[in-house]
Design brief:
The chain is 40% helix and 13% strand. By secondary structure, the protein is α/β, with parallel strands linked by helices. The longest helix is centred in the last third of the chain and has 19 residues, at 421-439.
Amino acid sequence: MLVTLQSGLVQFLHATPITVEVSITRGIKYFIVGLADTALKESKQRIYTAIKNTQFHWPGQRITINLAPTTTRKFGTLLELPIALGVLAASGQFPTDRLEAYLIVGTLGLDGGVVPVEQPYQLLELAKRLGKKGVVLNTYSAQHTYLNERQHPALCVVRSLKEAVSFFQTGQLPAAANAALRPPQPQSAQWRQERAAFGCFSEVAGQRPLKRALEVAAAGGHHALIVGPPGVGKTMLCERLPSILPPITPCDQPWLNGIHSSGTSEENPLVFQNLRPFLKRSPPLTKRQLLGSLPDTAGQVVQQFRNALVPLDPPVAAPKVLGDVLATLGGVYCIDELHTTSARIRDMLLQPMNDHVHQLIGIMNPCHCGNFGHHDRKCRCTASSLSGFQGMLSGALLERFDMYLFVPSMSWQEEAATERSVVIYRRVQAAWLRQIQRQGKQNAQLSLDELEAYSMMTKRDWRAYYRMAARYNLSNRAQRNWLALSRTLADLDGVEAVTMPHIVAGLALMNPDRSEYNQRFDAIGMPEVQRVQTRETRA
């Protein structure tokens, strides 16, 4: 008797369909053909023992197992469960009418137990492409079943070979295994508790301009460089940024789920509840820590995984170390003390920042001693030392930051009462929703042509915009950053068209002339650098 089952193998973010054919004829041999690797060939004894220990009958005949396509090498042990079910079905121990409707994946233990699969998302996507009703497997965490609410095929959890056979006999899943795997709902108590664990903006006294700037960055997905003396609250506020981040963009959700269910990253169940990944690092940073163990450059890695569910050519093996770039795709990557990182590491950030596949927040001191801009501490740096410190970051890197924020020190008498994170989050979420409904992605990911179309400015505002762009000699990238910031400010205000106040505020956030630096350079005798002219911005 011949029985055909559908299974699959996962290679990082892509699942490949594998057809398992089991034929039982007269004889005594037991074969597995179809380019099986050593691990899969060793599965023969494990499958035999698992069937015997679960009180099923092992057919004493010639068993031939073919793994198709025969030109694809089969690796790992995920095909053990479909092979065992195929042997039992071909020997007539349970009906075969339900087998073709499901994708079956699993590794067997000697006692007949099914080992949990680490990549359920990729397999669910494969079942969806193949038109299957569901995937029969075991899984580690309840968070993965959240995908059932996203119009995926059913996730049928079985913990043993006996439960799998019972399911195909009766059509009923084991209640104990599947009842415990109910998906947590978005914005559940757990979701709110985890978001609150990041802290609240109200816990940081003062710094209202910085809080407003981070609100704009969160709403539009903008890169930001924060410069200021030690102790002003830069790091504290950035650590609380996840408390106001909007949900994951729908186009980013599939490949984020794939990455965080691939077994190469620490499991982040909040990703499956639309909470963006957040990672904060402090130097020293290495290339391996930044990019992982993949041999590709940062730009190539980003390009490969923007369409993570599309078959990769050539296929990319799962890295032993995921790397910060991939771990924070679609989320926020915060680097504290950016000025202490090596120039080589900073150059590796250029392409990921340019693609806006994640949001980068950089934090740095204003000078070598750190006292530049402090209200009561004197800066010990010379004029040439200050000028050299500014030059540590290349022009290419600085231009990719949408916002440049100079945070001055504050006195203890500054008012401490501020908004709570939940209030700011509501505004950010409303602005994010306007962007998704209008263009399907955040403003930071729009091109210059798209921003010009979505800005909906009047001719008078456009003339003023072009005069200011020419006045400050802004590049195309700088103009794109400026328009994106202005568009986000308009979304936060809840208006359709970008107006002159949004343009002026966007230019102030971008701060093209680093005016806070310039103001203090004058006091120590440095040549004055052109500032933003108030009269020009009022045009």
